[in-house]
Amino acid sequence: MKNRFLLVAAVFLLTAMAGASPAGDSAVLSIVDAAWTHGVGEDRQPRERLERAGPDQPLTLWMKVSCSPGALEMLRIQGKLPIRHKWSYASFGGVLAQGTLNMTDSIALSAGRVELLDLLAAEVRTRGGFDWRTWSTKKNLLRGTWRVRVSYSDGSPVLCGDKECEYWIELGE
Question: How far apart are CA 18 and CA 50, in angstroms?
Fold first, then answer.
């Protein structure tokens, strides 16, 4: 019981340092920039920014994620790393005008891997926070509407303001 109390106290202390509540993430983790692209360069930046794409090339959702001081340890303790991209395809069939979203993949982003926590912790000590440039890529996509939701490893959504972070793109001709 004492160890559980210490763990809870540590989470609340880290949360206070990060300026967020344990249930929310808006002050802890934020997506600073995001782009649909066909690839990422050696500089870890998107090669181009797409509003629409064709299905004949790989499609990548690139993002820059920033975290506040104290967030790294809090996210680790809460089992929220790595962050995931959940890819879904919007299919429309029959008479259902609203359609359905079929999740095709849940990709763990490399920058949030537990093995990298020591490197991120060093960046937090040096800079007072950290930035990730991370992405996931899918190949051989169907034409139509695609959505990627950003979530924590435990399945809870990463928030953009007061709503779930999600990104949409149309794959056409």
Answer: 34
Helix (H) or strand (E) holding 127: helix 117-127
What's the DSSP call for residue 158? Answer: P
pLDDT along the chain (173 residues), means of 10: 35 34 55 96 96 91 85 81 89 46 71 65 75 90 91 92 94 83
Q: Which residues contact 63 (CB under 8 A, 6 or more apart)?
A: 31, 32, 33, 34, 35, 132, 133, 134, 135, 150
Amino acid at 87: W
CA-to-CA distance for 81 and 151, rounded, in angstroms?
A: 9
Query: What phi and psi, each to the nearest 5 degrees, are found at residue 124?
Result: -60, -45
